[in-house]
């Protein structure tokens, strides 16, 4: 029996950080064993919110490729490609935009949330409103059966399914696979200051950071229990971001012991952080060994992405042709 196809992407709006590694990349590496995985660099999506800030876009694409390969994605096992090199995404996006009612887009929760909360950029653009339409095209071009999602992304996927059903209803032909969400445990890692880990907050541990840079950030910048001023003060691990990291990188017995020692002031914050540095280094050891190897060969990384793009483009071409046939706009080839 052929494997089910999975599709997922990562925006190239900034360098990847530890949160991306835990929240998605580790899971991608596992999924490639059981599914026919298509993973793409979503560089057009990066423009939907960062259309003015494009200076590092190309550099970010290569950085993503380096991190994917260092994490263990295998070019002969999964298909890695770059969205903007496959124009079929843009064409299908356009075709879908013809049939997608605007209120469907305006009611997407993340749209409303960002419009209310983001003040640093003007998001009153069609590209930002139409982002989920492009996302729908990304998914169905490859006839993906499954899309890994967190609970908060389910409305996006439901919109994709609505667009697909609407298309099939209007043009009376079942062209696309109706994708399902693959809900998994999404491990969320806060930034060094407890807010969401993000380059723009200056609180991220990047995948491109060396183990020494990572250690420096943890020892110097990671915020502990603010009420624990002196070494002898008992601390509260429930409000400490170091402890949040321990819950991800240290085993249950260590976490329980540190919880106890913190509350009784048996351990100081520097020693507690040093244990974290050690456990994080153990978890990232394979990645840390692989990353410099791939970082030294950007040409090879681009080759992998180009090969994957060529393979993905063929699938996208076939699907788009079927969609155009259903609509009735494809013209016969004239030689
Ligand atoms: S001992 Fe550890 S858990 Fe307790 S406040 Fe210090 S860093 Fe946080």
Question: How many beta-strand runs?
Answer: 5
Oligomer type? single chain
**Residue windows where pLDDT falls under 50 for at least 5 positions:** none
* Major beta sheet summary: 3 strands, parallel
Could you say which structural class the secondary elements and strand pairing correspond to? Answer: mainly alpha
For the largest sheet, list the strands in their spatial order: 1-2-3
CATH classification, class level of the largest domain = Alpha Beta
Approximate strand percentage: 5-15%
Computed Rg: 22 Å
- Looking at the structure, the CATH topology of the largest domain is Rossmann fold
What form results from the Cα inertia axes?
elongated
Helix content: 55-70%
Number of helices: 15
Q: Please give the CATH architecture of the largest domain.
A: 3-Layer(aba) Sandwich
| CATH superfamily membership of the largest domain | HUPs
Order of helices and strands: EHEHHEHHHHHEHEHHHHHH
Ligand inventory reads: iron/sulfur cluster
**Number of domains as seen in the coordinates:** 2
């Amino acid at each position: 029996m052929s494997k089910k196809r999975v599709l997922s992407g990562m925006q190239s709006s900034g360098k990847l950080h530890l949160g991306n590694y835990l929240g998605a990349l580790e899971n991608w590496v596992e999924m490639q064993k059981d599914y026919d995985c298509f993973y793409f660099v979503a560089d057009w999506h990066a423009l939907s919110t960062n259309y003015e800030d494009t200076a590092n876009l190309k550099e970010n694409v290569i950085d993503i490729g380096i991190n994917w390969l260092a994490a263990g994605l295998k070019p002969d096992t999964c298909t890695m490609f770059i969205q903007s090199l496959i124009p079929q995404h843009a064409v299908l996006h356009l075709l879908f935009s013809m049939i997608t009612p605007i209120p469907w887009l305006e009611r997407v929760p993340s749209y409303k949330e960002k419009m209310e909360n983001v003040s640093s950029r003007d998001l009153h653009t069609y590209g930002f409103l139409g982002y989920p339409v492009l996302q729908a095209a990304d998914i169905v071009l490859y006839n993906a059966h499954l899309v890994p999602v967190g609970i908060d992304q389910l409305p996006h996927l439901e919109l994709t399914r609505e667009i697909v059903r609407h298309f099939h209803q209007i043009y009376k032909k079942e062209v696309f696979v109706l994708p399902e969400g693959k809900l998994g445990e999404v491990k969320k890692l806060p930034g060094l200051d407890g807010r969401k880990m993000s380059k723009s907050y200056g609180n991220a541990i990047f995948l491109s950071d060396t183990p020494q840079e990572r250690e420096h950030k943890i020892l110097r910048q990671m915020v502990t229990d603010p009420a624990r001023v002196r070494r002898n003060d008992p601390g509260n691990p429930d409000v400490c971001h170091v402890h949040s990291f321990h819950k991800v990188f240290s085993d249950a017995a260590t976490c329980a012991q540190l919880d106890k020692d913190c509350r009784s002031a048996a351990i100081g914050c520097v020693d507690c952080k040093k244990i974290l540095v050690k456990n994080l280094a153990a978890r990232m050891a394979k990645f840390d060994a692989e990353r410099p190897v791939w970082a030294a060969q950007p040409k090879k990384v681009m080759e992998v992405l180009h090969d994957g793009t060529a393979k993905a483009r063929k699938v996208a071409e076939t699907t788009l042709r079927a969609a155009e046939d259903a609509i009735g706009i494809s013209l016969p080839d004239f030689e």
